[in-house]
Amino acid sequence: YTTQAPGKWVLSGEHTVLCGGAAIALPHPEFRLRIDFRPAPGNLAVDPDLATPVIHELLKVAKEWLAHRGTKMELPQGSLKITSTIPFGAGLGSSAALSVVTARWVLAAYSLGGAFDPALERELAREMENCFHGRSSGMDVAVVSIGEPIRFTMAEGAVGLGIQNLPSFVFVDSGLRAATRDCIEKVESLRRTDPVRAQMLDQEMMRATDEILEGLRAFNERPGEIELVVRGMKRAGAVFAAWGLVPEEVQTLLAKLEREGIRSPRLTGAGGGGYIVGLR
After folding, report:
1. Rounded (to 5) percent helix, strand, coil in the chain
2. Mean pLDDT, to the nearest integer, of 218-222?
3. Which residues are bridge partners to 33 per DSSP?
4. For residue 247, what are the CA distances in angstroms to 206, 227, 261?
5. Neighbour count for residue 239 (Cβ, 10 Å)
6. 8 A C-beta contact, residue 24 and residue 13
7. Where are the extended beta strands (E) located within the chain?
8. Lower CB count within 10 Å: N or C terminus of the chain?
9. What is the pTM (predicted TM-score) of this model?
10. How do beta strands 45-47 and 78-84 pair?
11. Residues whose CB is less than 8 angstroms from the CB of residue 263 and which lie 6 or more positions away in sequence, other chains included
């Protein structure tokens, strides 16, 4: 069995999506994760070996998830090879991609008596991604599973944007790495200690998402019209800084990119490091 999934990146709405806001997420086809499984007698062998504990944890989640649906799952026997070009901890969806392809692999073997259901894939993948982040919004696994730009809210789920023409985005690796769980906790801590300021920042991020979405639709019809996208990305970047998710080294790099002509560069993903996205 072989399957693969793209990486992802987020244009706006990170963290605020966990408290009801909307986010815009897109697949990143330049980065991909693939699994190849060959059945064979004996215990499951995972390549690379370092991924063995993670795969067993995800399969444990799958076993419990299937049990709730009246299906008994046996642990697979054979060899599983994982090949990925998605940098870990870079905000590009490495954990989401691994969760999606593992969920797809499990559901291919235990189809619950029916045709493949993408909604079930996303549901199981979200349960798996909780192992990485503690609390997954479901956004990352949704865009990785669907493979097209989406607007996501926890209330409505993923809605395809239906946009064919996108502005020219540029991606730069900050060189720093951060754990998504730690970044989520930093934002949640602010919500507990200063709820008024936290609410103001969430509202700013929501405005950024609305601006960007309006700007993407305008650009789709009139290529070259990107001012709303520029403004929205700048607003979203300012919220990240206010949340304390932009290290000093990244601030220096963002300023350098602006001097070089990259418009509204900002971190994409949970923050703390990873990749920067901007507009040419």
Report:
1. 45, 20, 30
2. 94
3. 5, 84
4. 23, 27, 21
5. 25
6. yes
7. 2-12, 23-39, 45-47, 78-84, 150-153, 157-160, 169-173, 263-267, 275-279
8. C
9. 0.89
10. parallel
11. 226, 230, 233, 278, 279, 280
